[in-house]
Design brief:
There is one protein chain. The protein is mostly helical and about 220 residues long. The protein folds into two domains: about 40 residues, no CATH class; about 130 residues, no CATH class. Helix content is about 65%, strand content about 0%. It contains nine helices and no strands. α5 packs across α9. The longest helix is centred in the middle third of the chain and has 26 residues. The relative contact order is 0.11.
Length: about 220
């Protein structure tokens, strides 16, 4: 019988279990309780108000980002603040996504290369549904690789653990809600899709870290 990991439980918060995963849950009341607790926490977090600055708070946000070295520029309140903030966010997403992709491309965890096949040209699909499944599978693999990469690299190469994990989860939920709307409005936009997938991976990582901290 398949054994469920913390990553599996975090994924099942929003996804339906496979028959094998459902069998593992049915056979272990403790796992059912843990999954129920994760779902309850997620629902509570989703009910929190959006963690966004007030209309007049963008200048203070920019000042904090500049002080933290996340934005570059001499004029602290030079417009447009939002555009420069998005440029900084885009740079972070592109860097992290490129790092994770390079890590995946230069290793073969879980037989990814074997399953994907050794084709030189772009993949072809018989239907839109088949292509959609391929996109979902690629997104899942990227998220799993991203979480594994940061777990293996350790805190020295990654960001320090947040002082308030619940606040971090609430912020991630707000980010996912905003980017979900953007993806629905512009489904072909690679940047919005990248931010959304990145936020999902960060959410899974945060839930896993929060669960581990709760156990210790």
């Amino acid at each position: 019988m398949e054994r469920l990991t913390l990553e599996d439980l975090a994924r099942l918060v929003d996804e339906h279990p496979t028959p094998q995963e459902q069998a593992a849950l049915d056979a272990d009341p403790r796992l059912q309780s843990e999954l129920g607790a994760l779902r309850s926490q997620t629902e509570e977090l989703r009910s929190l108000p959006a963690v966004l600055p007030a209309p007049d708070g963008w200048e203070k946000l920019e000042e904090k980002l500049l002080a933290a070295g996340l934005l570059q520029g001499q004029q602290l309140f030079a417009p447009p603040v939002w555009r420069r903030w998005m440029q900084g966010a885009a740079a972070v997403v592109i860097f992290v996504a490129g790092t994770a992709f390079g890590w995946i491309a230069n290793s073969t965890p879980g037989g990814i290369h074997d399953e994907a096949g050794a084709q030189d040209g772009p993949a072809t699909y018989a239907s839109a549904d088949e292509a959609r499944h391929a996109v979902e599978d690629a997104k899942r693999r990227w998220q799993e690789a991203y979480v594994a990469y940061h777990d293996l690299s350790g805190p020295a190469e990654g960001r320090p653990a947040p002082r308030d994990p619940l606040q971090q989860l609430a912020a991630l939920e707000a980010l996912m809600a905003a980017t979900r709307v953007a993806v629905e409005e512009f489904p072909e936009d690679q940047f919005f899709n990248g931010v959304y997938v990145q936020a999902q991976a960060e959410q899974r990582r945060a839930v896993r870290r929060f669960t581990l901290d709760s156990w210790h």
